[in-house]
Design a protein that fits this description.
Layout lengths: L4 H8 L7 H16 L3 E5 L2 E3 L4 E5 L6 H14 L12 H10 L11 H6 L7 H8 L6 E6 L2 H5 L4 H10 L5 E5 L5 E5 L2 E8 L1 H7 L8 H4 L1 E5 L15 H17 L2 E2 L1 E2 L1 H13 L9 H20 L5 E2 L1 H22 L8 H14 L2 E2 H8 L6 H13 L3 E5 L5 E5 L19 H5 L2
Parallel strand pairs: 1-9, 3-7, 3-8, 4-7, 10-11
Antiparallel strand pairs: 1-2, 5-6, 12-14, 13-14
Helix pairs in contact: 1-2, 1-11, 2-3, 2-13, 12-14, 13-14, 15-17
C-alpha cells in the first residue's frame, strides 16, 4: 500500500525547529527533482514539466538550512545524484550540464578539461543535433545559502536560469572564449534559502521586472517557535517508507499526465477567477501563476503515485499555492518598493502594533522620513486604498486609523480547502 508521501515526510522531519511550511515545500521540491522529465503535461504546442524554483525566505533563526539539508540527504539516499555544486560560476555550472552524460563520474573541476572533451563549433549544426539525442540534462540546486550559488548582482546568470525554467530543446550557450556548448532539455530544480536582507544584496531591484523573478516561488515563514535543543535521530522505519516511495516513483511514473474532466473544469474556473497578489511587485508572477499551478498539480499527483490529475489534486495544489502567495509579500520585505515604501511600511507597523493611532501620532513617528506633511497623508491614503488599514471617526470627532487584519480565504468557492495544511502552518499566518 502506497504511503501518503507529504504526510509521511512531515512526520519524518517533525523533530526539529524548521517550520512545517518549509518542510512541505522541501518535500515537493525533492519530488519534483526526482521526477525530472519522466512526466509531462501537454500545454498547447509545448510540454510543461514539474521542475520548480523554490526559495525559502526567513530570518536566520528559521532553520531554513535544516529543512533543505534534510531533504537533500534523503533524496541522495535514494540514489539521486544530480545535485549542483552549492557554490559555482556561471560557465562552470553550464559546462557541467553539457558534460553530464559524457563524463559521468569523472572529475569536472577544471572547465578547460571539460571543454577539451566536447566537440565545439567545428560543425555547430551537427553538434547541436547530436546533443538532442542525449538524455535530458538534470540539475538540482540545493543551496541553503542561495547567494553563494547565484553570486551578487549576476544579472546574466539570473537571466539564463530564468530561460532554463521551461526550456524545451537544445540550449545553445556561447562561452567567453567564443566556443559553444549544447545542453539537451535542461531540467533545473532550485531549492534555496535566503533572508530578506540577502535578497536585497544578491539581486538588483530591476530583477522584479525580469523573467527569473516571475518563475520563483518565494516561501516565507517566521520561526516555528519550537525549542528542540537535542533533535532525535531519524526514524528509520519512516525513512525506509520514503526511500521505497521514491523507488516507486522511478518505476511507475512515466509519460503524459492527464486531467480528469472535473479537474479540467475546475482549472478553468481558477484560471478566470484567481485574483493577483495584492502587491505590484508580483505582477509578472501573476501572469505566470497558472503554469506554477500546473507544475504543482503534477507533483501532488505524483505524491499519490498517480499519472492522473484529479479534482482533489487541483484543490490541494491550489490551496498550498494560495497559502504561500498570501505570505509572498512578506518574503520581499522592502525589496523593490518605491522611494517612500519603507516609511509607508513603518506607518503600517506602527498602527498594527499600537492598535489604533491618530494622524498626529503617525506624523510624529515618520516626520523624519518624509519631506512634506502631504506625503504622510498620501502614504496613509495608499494604505487605505490597499485595504491594509481602516479609518474611523470617534464620538469626539477625532479621526483614528486602525489595523485591518487580513484573513485567509474562507474557501466557500471550493477552490481552496485548508484541511490540506497542518495547524502549525495555519497558525503561522
Amino acid at each position: 500500500m502506497a504511503i501518503d508521501y507529504i504526510a509521511t515526510y512531515l512526520k519524518y522531519t517533525d523533530d526539529n525547529e524548521c517550520p512545517k511550511l518549509f518542510h512541505r515545500w522541501t518535500a515537493l521540491s525533492c519530488l519534483a527533482a526526482k521526477l525530472g522529465r519522466k512526466v509531462h503535461f501537454r500545454f498547447g504546442h509545448f510540454n510543461i514539466y514539474p521542475n520548480m524554483y523554490v526559495l525559502l525566505i526567513g530570518s536566520p533563526g528559521t532553520k531554513k538550512s535544516t529543512g533543505i539539508k534534510m531533504g537533500a540527504k534523503l533524496l541522495g539516499d535514494t540514489g539521486y545524484d544530480y545535485f549542483a555544486a552549492k557554490k559555482t560560476r556561471q560557465e562552470k555550472y553550464l559546462t557541467d550540464l553539457a558534460e553530464q552524460f559524457l563524463n559521468k563520474g569523472k572529475d569536472t573541476s577544471d572547465v578547460d578539461l571539460i571543454l577539451d572533451n566536447l566537440t565545439l563549433d567545428e560543425d555547430s549544426a551537427s553538434e547541436k543535433s547530436a546533443a538532442s539525442n542525449k538524455a535530458p540534462a538534470e540539475s538540482f540546486v540545493t543551496a541553503d545559502e542561495f547567494n553563494n550559488f547565484i553570486g551578487y548582482n549576476n544579472v546574466d546568470f539570473i537571466s539564463i536560469l530564468g530561460e532554463l525554467w521551461d526550456y524545451n530543446g537544445v540550449f545553445d550557450y556561447r562561452l567567453k572564449n567564443s566556443d559553444s556548448i549544447y545542453i539537451n532539455n535542461p531540467t533545473i530544480n532550485i531549492l534555496g534559502g535566503n533572508t530578506q536582507v540577502g535578497l536585497n544584496s544578491a539581486f538588483p531591484p530591476e530583477i522584479i521586472g525580469q523573467g527569473f523573478f516571475s518563475r520563483l516561488l518565494l516561501i516565507y515563514s517566521d520561526p516555528s517557535g519550537k525549542e528542540i535543543p537535542f533533535p532525535l535521530p531519524p526514524d528509520e522505519s519512516l525513512k525506509g517508507d520514503l526511500v521505497q516511495f521514491f523507488s516507486d516513483v522511478e518505476d511507475k511514473l512515466h509519460g503524459e499526465m492527464l486531467l480528469t474532466d472535473e479537474a479540467r473544469e475546475l482549472m478553468k474556473i481558477i484560471y478566470t477567477k484567481w485574483d493577483s497578489i495584492d502587491d505590484p511587485r508580483f505582477e509578472h508572477y501573476s501572469n505566470r501563476r497558472f503554469q506554477h499551478l500546473i507544475k504543482l498539480t503534477m507533483v501532488i499527483a505524483a505524491s499519490k503515485l498517480s499519472m492522473q490529475i484529479t479534482k482533489d489534486v487541483v484543490i490541494e495544489a491550489n490551496t498550498v499555492l494560495t497559502f504561500a502567495e498570501q505570505l509572498m509579500p512578506r518574503a520581499l520585505g522592502e525589496f523593490g518598493r518605491s522611494k517612500n515604501s519603507a516609511a509607508t511600511h513603518k506607518i503600517l507597523v506602527f498602527i498594527t502594533n499600537k492598535g489604533m493611532a491618530t494622524f498626529k501620532e503617525i506624523f510624529k513617528v515618520v516626520s523624519q522620513d518624509f519631506d512634506k506633511r502631504e506625503q504622510v497623508i498620501e502614504a496613509i491614503n495608499s494604505l487605505l486604498l490597499a485595504d491594509k488599514i481602516a479609518v474611523q471617526e470617534t464620538n469626539s470627532g477625532r479621526t483614528i486609523y486602525l489595523p485591518k487584519k487580513k484573513v485567509l480565504f474562507d474557501g466557500e468557492d471550493g477552490l481552496v480547502d485548508w484541511k490540506y495544511l497542518t495547524q502549525e502552518e495555519l497558525n503561522s499566518y
